[in-house]
Amino acid sequence: MSSANSTILNTISPSLCGKFRNPNFKTLIPQSRIPIYSKCRLNHTPTISFYNIPASLKLRSSKIRASGDSTGETGNWLNQFSSGALAADKIFRLISGATASPIAQFISSPTTFLHSVDPRIKLIWLLVLVVLPARSHIIMRFGLVVYIALLSIWILPRQVWMDQLGRVSLLSGILFIMLGLGADSAPPLVQPRTPPPAMMGLPNLPVSLEGYSYLIMKLGPLKFTRKGLSVASTAACLTFTIFQSASLCLATTTPEQLAFALRWFMLPLRCIGVPVSEITLTLLLSLRFINLVFDEVRNVALGIVSRRINWEQLTIMETIDIFASYIRRIFKNIFNHAEQISQAMIVRGFRGDSNSHKIYFLSGSSIGMADFISVLCLIGVVGGAFLSDYFLV
């Protein structure tokens, strides 16, 4: 095969046969072109130096300063904005401060006449205060609110009633504004198709001589009408009376007395198989457990605040982890208290049967002068609510 290739090369170009067998780079390139390739030189890539840019092309930076006066000095308005680090500390301080005052807890001192009222009469009062705001006249509703507010100021300590009335009033006020302005503000989706009386040959409706107006006030697209006033007053007064009357009852009545009153009212239900003893025991434990929950929420929050954590050096995930640890610690402590209560009940002989276990309610059944006054006031309030429907139209 090699001899055949050699024969072909000799036939084509005998003079180049040796060159193809032993190729040489210098012999393949013509000598006349070597100086041309040797003189070729690649230029370097052009670069732009920042320092050689003309001054007219350089970027100009401008500063904007906010000042509170004409002197041009910046004030401390940036300090008014709270950062995320300070917000976490404020949340824990608010939690520890919000639970500082007793909420749904018995206040033993100072002792008032409401402490000596029979708990059964107090439960009747609570039932009446739930029903009356929804069924009575608007003047009667606001009268009940004023009555409960004055009674709270008289009975509760100053720090307690200021805290409770402030929160309940704020909640009721927000509810009143939202329902009052939102009852008739949205236009109806279905428009009435009844033609006006003039088109049917009927006289127009007479204008009220007393100046009756369905629309009370209008704020742009929002309307405050008589329907909104009725709905808002009912909801706000009902919210205020329920929360504040329950707080008054719990502040002046021990859990044992409330359990005794509930058991006294539910005794006839034993005939139909209602577990009265279990319900009473559950209520008693629940009322005792409320204080522990608020104490744990406050104590754990105070523990975090007292450690003076540098919130500015924490990331968002670390802050969230602290809040998660706070919630876990609360539930862990609450479950520990529940276990201790169950062990204490087992030690005292409780085996799960509420009927055979003796419960001491520590409540006297004597009727005093405070009870008669409470019953008379109750009859007066109920009678005034019924008479208001006939005389206050």
UniProtKB/TrEMBL annotation:
It is a multi-pass membrane protein. Pfam families: CbiQ. The keyword Transmembrane helix applies. Keywords: Membrane, Transmembrane, Transmembrane helix. The keyword Transmembrane helix applies. It is found in: Membrane. One of its GO terms (cellular component) is plasma membrane. The chain crosses the membrane at residues 123-156, 168-186, 229-253, 359-387. PANTHER family: PROTEIN ABCI12, CHLOROPLASTIC. This is Uncharacterized protein. It comes from Manihot esculenta (Cassava).
